[in-house]
TrEMBL record:
Signal peptide (residue range): none
GO terms under biological process: response to antibiotic
GO molecular function: ABC-type transporter activity
Subcellular location per the Swiss-Prot or TrEMBL entry: Cell membrane; Membrane
InterPro entries, alphabetized: ABC2_TM (IPR013525), ABC2_TM_bact-type (IPR047817), ABC_2_transport (IPR000412), Nod_factor_ABC_transporter (IPR051784)
A single GO cellular-component term on record: ATP-binding cassette (ABC) transporter complex
Family: Belongs to the ABC-2 integral membrane protein family.
Membrane-protein topology: Multi-pass membrane protein
Species in which this protein is naturally found: Lentzea flaviverrucosa
Keyword flag Cell membrane: yes
Family matches, as Pfam families: ABC2_membrane
Protein name per UniProt: Transport permease protein
Transmembrane segments annotated in the record for this chain: 24-45, 57-81, 102-130, 136-158, 170-188, 226-248
Domain ABC transmembrane type-2: 25-251
Amino acid sequence: MTKHSFVDTIVLLGRSLSHITRSLDTILTTVITPIAMMLMFVYVFGGAIQTGSDSYVNYLLPGILLITVASGVTYTAFRLFMDMQSGIFERFQSMPIARSSVLWAHVLTSLVANLLSLVVVVLVALLIGFRSGAGPLAWLAVAGILVLFTLALTWLAVIPGLTAKSVDGASAFSYPLIFLPFLSSAFVPTGTMPGPVRAFAENQPVTSIVNAIRALYTEQPVGTDIWIALAWCAGILVVGYVLATITYRRKTS
């Protein structure tokens, strides 16, 4: 990213963030569903689920954090779709600004908004009993994984935001992402699942990401999960970025 495109990205980032500050219901809507899920699982199902953990909220939290991100990136697709429909992209093309700055502004807006949502979810988890003795380095590693995961899903969200024919179409892509943690180790150990489901759960990206985050803040050995999680996040990020930029060039050429 050149100095010129960096400055343009910062200016457009300010524009996108101002839209969020004028509609805080965006962030509130993003966190309501994950928080409701967390409260329901902890207080309704938690007593019946055997995880080998003293606190079910400690076991549950990583999956809830990933669902929060999956819910949040929906608004990236929505905001891009609305910009495409309003003709603002054509207006930007007529201005002396870097093309890439338009997408990067939306991506960074998603990152900021999702980090705020994640902080809210963690605060609620603390109120209902979440505790961790992990040190700053472990929490920095958790934050790094969540940032990488957010960027990966955000670049994927850019694609339907640019190509969807309707608002519902732009937002619908996130539904499978929100559902995926339910077929992972996020809510129950994979060992309790029937054979085919267990095989899928143990080899999909959410399980390794969840296991890595949980091990970090519970001060357990991380093993290979963190490297598998990083590989998944990096792979999804690269694929999403390449496909999004190709789609953007075709749409604006």
